[in-house]
Amino acid sequence: MPPRAFLSATPLFYHRRVVRTQVAVIGSGGDNEERAEKVGRLLAERGATVVTGGRDEVMAAAARGAKSAGGTTIGILPGETREGANEWIDHVVVTGVGHARNLAVVASGDAVIAVGGAWGTLSEIAFARVLGRPVVVLDPGWAVDGEGVERVSSPEEAVELALRLARTAVDEKSH
Amino acid sequence: MPPRAFLSATPLFYHRRVVRTQVAVIGSGGDNEERAEKVGRLLAERGATVVTGGRDEVMAAAARGAKSAGGTTIGILPGETREGANEWIDHVVVTGVGHARNLAVVASGDAVIAVGGAWGTLSEIAFARVLGRPVVVLDPGWAVDGEGVERVSSPEEAVELALRLARTAVDEKSH
Amino acid sequence: MPPRAFLSATPLFYHRRVVRTQVAVIGSGGDNEERAEKVGRLLAERGATVVTGGRDEVMAAAARGAKSAGGTTIGILPGETREGANEWIDHVVVTGVGHARNLAVVASGDAVIAVGGAWGTLSEIAFARVLGRPVVVLDPGWAVDGEGVERVSSPEEAVELALRLARTAVDEKSH
Amino acid sequence: MPPRAFLSATPLFYHRRVVRTQVAVIGSGGDNEERAEKVGRLLAERGATVVTGGRDEVMAAAARGAKSAGGTTIGILPGETREGANEWIDHVVVTGVGHARNLAVVASGDAVIAVGGAWGTLSEIAFARVLGRPVVVLDPGWAVDGEGVERVSSPEEAVELALRLARTAVDEKSH
Fold first, then answer.
1. Which of C67, C103, C108, C112 to mutate against chain D (most D CBs within 10 Å)?
2. Measured distance CA(A156)–CA(A160) in Å, rounded
3. How many Cβ atoms sit within 10 Å of the Cβ of residue C24?
4. ipTM for the predicted complex
5. CA geometry: angle at B131 spanning C16 and B171, to 5°?
6. In degrees, to the nearest 5, what angle opens at C-alpha D118 toward C-alphas D110 and D152?
7. What's chain C's average pLDDT?
8. How near does any CA of chain C get to the CA of B78, in Å?
9. Nearest C-alpha of chain B: how many angstroms from D9?
10. Terminal-residue alpha carbon distance, chain D
């Protein structure tokens, strides 16, 4: 272990810029698990952290995919305990704010990929745009048209585009 | 129902039980940074992930301490961007819910350690107890008395006690 | 003033069933103010309380319409103060939770009427459906199709339908 | 831009300044209901709207007291439906954000009166101070000392002081 005093007095060599790109993967529906898992795996292979709502179906599949490639996963839960978290979450955020956690899920992504999904997913796509996060919808999915929402037809394209948009978004905000 | 394993390239041995213990470190005040940094370092040395509100003073110091020991940090921010996040955060959760993120900070800890702090910290101590999370106050700090709030006088004791209480809390909920 | 002891010991004659129907009016865009004002006025004429996000454009117009007919208005604000509240709000709820207040706006309606609007409105339509609140979109508006979302073309139809759906929703939940 | 008056049948003299003073009454515990009811009644007699968390015990008693004097009550609920709302609430705000609704309760008061209470109440006292709302604790109650928290020993004093502080707070912010 390096001497801590050195590091703590000298934050020069460790700073926020090393935070990895975080991509939120949203959606639901058992039929979409295979696509979501592939998205998660490809994101991990590209070095991005996968952020999800932490629960089942698409959320679990994306995290499972990320872990299968040795990636890192964050799950942002709606309830007041870890109950219902899927098994592939590395870092569990328990929000206690119910569906308002949807805001946190997309806000925590530098970009957002939607895989299937129902009303909750639509709320996330909308919130992502309220906050200026780029959204990539993997078709078939919510047919949302509007500035900042792109639609693609394969997991590969989704990941490629999301990472490119994430980079741009981050550069613009220089955060 | 098809066997889940079939759907995925799932690493069979990866599951939630390996989520590391997460301890929330709360507080504020520049005078408390040294103590907070020590708390963060000791937690990391013991293998716990440090969860904070992600900003300055105590939050930054605890994360800095954790990173100095090679640990992992999660920062849960109140705003809608990463702005204001300190440099020692590995995983940034942007909640967009303002001070309501205080609920998420303590809910995400298996135990909570308070180092100094003002009104925001008191809201977190109170929320931690609403949710049944054990709280360790490092004196001098908020003189809160009540079931589930313990007070200690050194970072070493704080970490020791928090980890013991976290284990108990987790066992009780078997999460 | 009636003797309070009588009332407080005897809640028989004052209870929740007298809470008036609450309808959330959501949307944005200066072009939609005229329609929103009419919706607000018609709701008030029918005895419903108008719930909005409390700010400008559609939110202000709906409240203004309600007040022009002697109705009651509730404004649910995103910030931490009353700043930005429009002048036609009777009861101001300051949430402090940013865009997560969108969840509260629609949750507080027995039904929801959307008049124009952008991404924030879409998040509200989606949240309304997550929570099972009936939604009436006044065309032209968000072209959202899905169970529980009806589209109409006049303020009169919107109000008529929303009140009918609200009654059904309330009966079902018997709240 | 067309004159706003043209767009509407707006009553010209109706504007925000007529929003009544809103006082949040927080607390819990069946033993405190009598005091809470008196606080609610006195607030209503003085023309203030009573804001509470909308549920039982102190929250119900304060609302009951207000209604016994012909006052107006707002209940801000944690859940996703009106379930659990007490019978004396005129205007029901369903937030869906769990305990984070505590932030909304105190944020919606120009001043806050605490009557008894446990951890949830402490979170509200703390949040009130984070947001700069004046707090009056009716003893016996939480023994919180700090700037902006006053302690009194009768409902009459609590209401008198809260209304005076509310006026000052509003004047300062000129909202």
1. C108
2. 6
3. 29
4. 0.89
5. 135
6. 50
7. 89
8. 9
9. 37
10. 26
